[in-house]
Amino acid sequence: MDQIKIGKFIAERRKFVNLTQFELAEKLGITDRAVSRWETGKTMPDSSIMLELCSILKISVNELLSGEILSMDDYKNQLEKNLIEAVKQKEQADKRLLTLEVVIIVLSVLVLLIPILLAAYLKLETWQRIVLVCSGVIPCAVGLFFAMKIEQVAGYYECQKCGHKHVPTFKQASFSMHMGRTKYLKCPKCGERSWQKKVISKD
Fold it and tell me: What is the pLDDT of residues 57-100, one digit of tens each?
């Protein structure tokens, strides 16, 4: 998607419906700075307000993502292109998240190991050792929690029985048996349990 083109289109439509950046922002419950960032192509409108934005600008979501008013002939073709682009962007975001997950896990383990090693080799009182170890346990636990959350939401798990791809609940993802990014999960479609691999694409 061409963010610059979309930004210019938002500005054109805002002027077409006789709204200032401030008035549009007020209707959407956001800051006028956010509107300005859309119009300069720096950011895109959040999906949670996209329908309301399109309603105010008197356009469809497809036209917003295309950055232009579409004729009936172009509408279907552009819709397919926009959907494909949205899927690609989600896949790229999921890949970045899974890379971030690895970084978080490594850092969390290091944050835990360093205090343990210091407590083992430095001459300290017992209470000091306990405090030192706890200073590593708490941030490590927080880091691992965020890593598990990323593991749950990024990409999909593919059922080995029926091929259905799904996102498990946080509880299912956290407490299921696993080997790396392969988890023993129950498929919501066929109801069977299997070792399900993490995949990025839903196709």
Answer: 999 888 898 888 887 777 777 877 887 788 788 888 889 999 99
Q: Same domain, yes or no, for 123 and 165?
A: no
Q: Which helix (H) or strand (E) holds 197?
A: strand 193-199
Q: Per the domain annotation, does 76 fall within a domain?
A: no
Question: What is the domain-level CATH number for residue 16?
Answer: 1.10.260.40
- DSSP letter string over 15-41? HHTT--HHHHHHHHTS-HHHHHHHHTT
Concatenated DSSP letters for 63-103? HHHHTS---HHHHHHHHHHHHHHHHHHHHHHHHHHHHHHHH
Asked if residues 13 and 59 have their Cβ atoms less than 8 Å apart, the reply is: yes
- Whether 186 is in a domain gets the answer yes
- Mind listing the pLDDT tens digit for each residue in 89-131? 888 888 999 999 999 999 999 999 999 999 888 888 889 989 9
Domain count, the chain: 3
